[in-house]
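User: Need the bound-state model for zinc ion:
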Amino acid sequence: MSRKSEQREIILKTVKSTDIHPDADWIYQQVKKEIPDISLGTVYRNLKLLAGKGNIRQLDIDNGPSHFDGRTDLHHHLKCIKCGRIMDIDYSLKSEDIERIGKENDFSVTEYSFVFYGICSRCIK
Ligand SMILES: [Zn+2]
Ligand SMILES: [Zn+2]
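Assistant: Bound-state model below.
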């Protein structure tokens, strides 16, 4: 395996290993343990590339840094407004609702995503 594809493998593995929806900086800190001389720029470029290929998902919620998700199937998110934690939820619209939204707006829906904001169980205590 070339160095480049090895780097990409490790970055992919790192994103897939967690459900905390980390940002590039967190991933960089983890990957550095295995590849001490890797740069944040390289990590970021690979994350973009992996997201572009559909191996991972890039989440741009709010104006903060992008978060990365190892889960690529259709699912949505809860975001805690206190600690910023992002959690997965399984929820999908009925196909007739998607069709209706498309029809009413003369729009062809190709995908959709929801973020529910609130306060997580850790912060509510
Ligand atoms: Zn919280
Ligand atoms: Zn997710």
